Amino acid sequence: MLSNGSVLTQSAMRILVIGGNGFIGSPLVRELRDSGHQVAVFHRRHDAGLGDVEQIQGDRNRFVEYRNELSRFAPEVIVDLILSSGDQARELMRTVRDVAARLVAISSMDVYRAWGVLHGVEPGPLEPLPLREDSPLRTTRQLYPAETVQMMQRVFSWLDDRYDKIAAEETIRGDPQVQWTVLRLPMVYGPKDPLHRFFPLLKRIADGRSSILLSDDFAAWRGPRGYVENVAHAIAIAATSDRAAGSVYNICEEPTLPELEWQRKIAGQMKWAGRFVVLARERVPKHLLLPGNAAQHVVASSERIRSELGYREPVESDEAIRRTIAWEQQNPPSSIHKEQFDYAAEDAAFAKTA
């Protein structure tokens, strides 16, 4: 690996990225191209921002129909960033067998049983931590209710109605004709984050709130995170390493900070002089409560990708937070759910502590 975090390979490769102009795809394509690889992007509409990168336009749900265009590019590796169901995976594999020798499939840590316990859909005791690549997966296949999936589709248009990353993984890992790599991603933050994960905290600070309220269970909860450029770097390493074939890798920052400590790091960069107030869950307004069982933390180990592929984050945590804050301040969400910012209810909760 080069000192600036770029991927070092012996020779240039031809890499096709499905969904390569999005949140994670953009820095991934940039890194691969800057490292000397020939990159093509498969997506719905032409994107002038991709510059000289070859673009193949089409619908990923009818991927097999574009076999001829894909064959002309002749990729050695295909990276699928927007795979969401078993149906999509089967369509993908029918095409990949004839087009490329290797596939890197982007999955999610929501495949783990711990995520199901967190969301209240998985029975039984809390899952032991940290989560490793061989930790138990969910037995309940539908993690999110249909209405939640529909809301997610407004942000992620590629999301399948039958969203199930476990089914996608099973299809890919069960194919004997294609060398595969599966990458399980954390909650990803950074510039162009479609979920605007920093926004609720930044808005409260910008609105002059002197105190910010958290429920005790959420304040203590630890969940996996990753800065977008670092996650893209991990994907680039896996895509260009023969050693990654046949392996599953977790990608996440370590250590995994509790939510209160994480928010303090963000607020510290804003030089906010206020205070965080942690109250028992029953004393916190409903709009600040997250559903599920926050006693189930989701702390994952990324040791495998670090030891086997030499992954290290090229952007350190404080700089990642700084860049994310700067982007959020310049790009607030187009619509704001005002019920998220019921300051009267929050003030009433504070008053009861006085």
Structure notes:
The chain is an alpha/beta fold. The protein has 2 domains: 1-186 and 224-256 and 297-315, NAD(P)-binding Rossmann-like Domain (Rossmann fold, 3-Layer(aba) Sandwich), CATH 3.40.50.720; 194-222 and 258-296 and 319-354, no CATH class. The chain has 13 helices and 11 strands. It has a 7-stranded parallel beta sheet with strand order 3-2-1-4-5-6-10, with helices on both faces. Strands 7-9 form a two-stranded parallel ribbon. The protein has a two-stranded parallel sheet with strand order 8-11. Helix 1 packs across helix 9. Mean pLDDT is 93; it is low at 1-10.
Count of alpha/pi helices? 13
Q: Sketch the major β-sheet.
A: 7 strands, parallel
Given as residue ranges, the uncertain stretches (5+ residues, pLDDT < 50) are 1-10
Find the structural class using helix and strand composition. Answer: alpha/beta
- Termini distance? 55 Å
Average predicted confidence as pLDDT: 93
Task: Describe the oligomeric state of these chains in a short phrase.
Answer: single chain
**CATH architecture term of the largest domain:** 3-Layer(aba) Sandwich
Series of secondary-structure elements, N-terminal to C-terminal: EHEEHEHEHHHEEHEHEHEHEHHH
CATH topology of the largest domain: Rossmann fold
State the helicity in percent bands.
25-40%
Give the full name of the CATH homologous superfamily of the largest domain: NAD(P)-binding Rossmann-like Domain
